Amino acid sequence: MHHRLAAAVFAAACVALMPAAATAAPTPSPGSATVNRAGTSFLTATAVNVGQPIQVAATTGDYLYWSFSATAGQTTEIALTVALPPAAKRTGASTWTVDVFDGLRRRQACTAGVQTPVAAATATEVSLGCTLRRVRSWAEPWSGDPLPGTYYVRLSVTELPETDLGLPVQVDMLLGAHGDAVADDGELKAPLVPRVKPGEVITAAGSVQPSASPGPDPDEATGALDWLPDLSARWIWTTVGGVLAAVAGVFGFSLTWRRRRS
Fold first, then answer.
1. Which of 107, 106, 127 is nearest to 117 (CA)?
2. What pLDDT is stored for residue 32 in this prediction?
3. Cα end-to-end distance, the chain, whole Å
4. For the stretch 186-223, what's the b/e string if a residue is b when 16 or more beta carbons lie within 10 angstroms of its beta carbon?
């Protein structure tokens, strides 16, 4: 009887501790510098690291973007807190949303956390959270599994009274990660990091490798006809239209021309 009671108590304690461990909030890394800015698009997203505190002063209606890198086997947790303006300045409730995208701009699902909370008109702050799926080392092209590379976090307010737009808010965010690389049956060829360099003009083109056994050059066989344009549907219809216009002009002239009598 005592053994059964002890086992039941131990099982209940494990069940009670499991949610607390699974939903433990991320903690800042010692000595990490606080980030005080955010981007307004994917191209201008501010790069942050796991465990780096983020404190940004913004206004309601802004789209805030951050980016971070994730490796295979990593599970990332995102915790956000938005300090709202005083209730006396607000006229109604507001709905906030946190979205996470991978390097290919695909929206990633969250396994835990409140992604779209509603803040009452009298609330002083609103908390958001998102726990991503474990990053895989490889995946099929048709699947939406998270892969190693760059990820983007976007915070926005989706519903609020129009008169509340532009009010100041304070955003606090922190990223946490746990897990190690696992032995998946495959390897990603390259991380999903888009080549994004705002303001730079890419002029380099890929080199074309010559064929091992080149055949006859088609340009040599048609060198005498280089002056002819490439025949396409546009050229054909233009030529046919010109011929029909000429025929119509001659026919109309023949109807209106009067022969002189001798």
1. 127
2. 82
3. 139
4. eebeeebeeeeeeeeeeeeeeeeeeeeeeeeeeeeeee
pTM of the model: 0.62
Distance CA 242, CA 246 (A): 6
Residue 220 has pLDDT above 70, yes or no: no
Residue with the two structure tokens 């086997």: 73
Minimal CA–CA distance to 177: which of 77, 109, 34, 100? 77
- Residue 72 — φ and ψ, nearest 5°? -65, 140
Cβ neighbors of 234 (< 8 A, separation 6 or more) are: none
Query: Rounded to an integer, what distance in angstroms lies between the CA atom of residue 152 and that of residue 53?
Result: 16
Backbone torsion region of residue 179, taken as left when φ is above 0, otherwise alpha when ψ lies between -120 and 50, otherwise beta: left
Q: What is the pLDDT of residue 260?
A: 64
Average pLDDT, the chain: 79
- How many angstroms separate the most distant Cα atoms in the chain? 139
